[in-house]
């Protein structure tokens, strides 16, 4: 059986001397959406940071498209096709929307204008506001800038750390729709999300983490239908 496009396998590690992840495994197939959910303090964002190389793991490995990238820095992983959108401080507030997007393409040596147009097609409001300082935008629009900037790197895998944090339900639905559109272009999505029920509805694969370990792993639909998952994590 072919290996998933991305797999962080049996990851154990943390910050300083304390392990937060305990044998955690995450994977995502090409062009699919994998969602990490679980209670506060479960290690969701830590698991994503381990995949991106922001956290050293002392057991386990991370492989992208069959290549072991466990020892690579985050910058080297970006060059391999990973894009990461942190939950906070993810835009340059004093720069315009378009300048933010251009910053996202700084590693590239080719013409980025076509990619900027693709971002504007995905997020039409950003085209309208492209000359505005990003700090003047609403929370949902800022998130669109952050995702757009990550897309400017031309990623094969896009990682999103709680992309809908602090936005209204309407904006959350719109962001999820755009994330589905990104996946349809063939880009794999790995996402940490507090809005577990809504996130699992769009997930091809779902991971419920508890205390840094896999508690439940299945398709998004199967997890939504699982009585134990519903009772323990989704409020019935």
TrEMBL record:
<keyword id="KW-0547">Nucleotide-binding</keyword>
<keyword id="KW-0067">ATP-binding</keyword>
<dbReference type="InterPro" id="IPR027417">
    <property type="entry name" value="P-loop_NTPase"/>
</dbReference>
<dbReference type="GO" id="GO:0005524">
    <property type="term" value="F:ATP binding"/>
</dbReference>
<keyword id="KW-0813">Transport</keyword>
<protein>
    <submittedName>
        <fullName>Branched-chain amino acid transport system ATP-binding protein</fullName>
    </submittedName>
</protein>
<dbReference type="InterPro" id="IPR052156">
    <property type="entry name" value="BCAA_Transport_ATP-bd_LivF"/>
</dbReference>
<dbReference type="GO" id="GO:0016887">
    <property type="term" value="F:ATP hydrolysis activity"/>
</dbReference>
<comment type="similarity">
    <text>Belongs to the ABC transporter superfamily.</text>
</comment>
<dbReference type="Pfam" id="PF00005">
    <property type="entry name" value="ABC_tran"/>
</dbReference>
<keyword id="KW-0029">Amino-acid transport</keyword>
<feature type="domain" description="ABC transporter">
    <location>
        <begin position="6"/>
        <end position="236"/>
    </location>
</feature>
<dbReference type="InterPro" id="IPR003593">
    <property type="entry name" value="AAA+_ATPase"/>
</dbReference>
<dbReference type="GO" id="GO:0015807">
    <property type="term" value="P:L-amino acid transport"/>
</dbReference>
<dbReference type="InterPro" id="IPR003439">
    <property type="entry name" value="ABC_transporter-like_ATP-bd"/>
</dbReference>
<dbReference type="GO" id="GO:0015658">
    <property type="term" value="F:branched-chain amino acid transmembrane transporter activity"/>
</dbReference>
């Amino acid at each position: 059986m072919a290996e998933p496009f991305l797999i962080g396998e049996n990851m154990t590690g943390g910050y300083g001397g304390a392990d937060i992840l305990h044998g955690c495994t995450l994977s995502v197939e090409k062009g699919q959406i994998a969602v990490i959910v679980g209670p506060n303090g479960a290690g969701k964002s830590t698991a994503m940071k381990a995949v991106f190389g922001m956290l050293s793991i002392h057991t386990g490995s991370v492989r992208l498209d069959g290549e072991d990238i466990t020892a690579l820095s985050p910058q080297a992983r970006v060059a391999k096709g990973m894009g990461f959108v942190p939950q906070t401080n993810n835009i340059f507030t004093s720069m315009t929307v378009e300048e933010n997007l251009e910053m996202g393409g700084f590693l590239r040596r080719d013409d980025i204008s076509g990619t900027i147009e693709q971002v504007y097609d995905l997020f039409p409001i950003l085209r309208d506001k492209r000359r505005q300082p990003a700090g003047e935008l609403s929370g949902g629009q800022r998130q669109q800038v952050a995702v757009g900037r990550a897309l400017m790197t031309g990623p094969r895998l896009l990682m999103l750390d709680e992309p809908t944090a602090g936005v209204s339900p309407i904006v959350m639905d719109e962001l999820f729709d755009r994330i589905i559109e990104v996946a349809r272009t063939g880009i794999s999505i790995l996402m940490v999300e507090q809005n577990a029920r809504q996130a699992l509805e769009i997930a091809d694969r779902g991971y419920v983490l508890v205390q840094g370990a896999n508690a439940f792993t299945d398709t998004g639909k199967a997890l939504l239908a699982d009585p134990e998952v519903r009772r323990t994590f989704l409020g019935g």
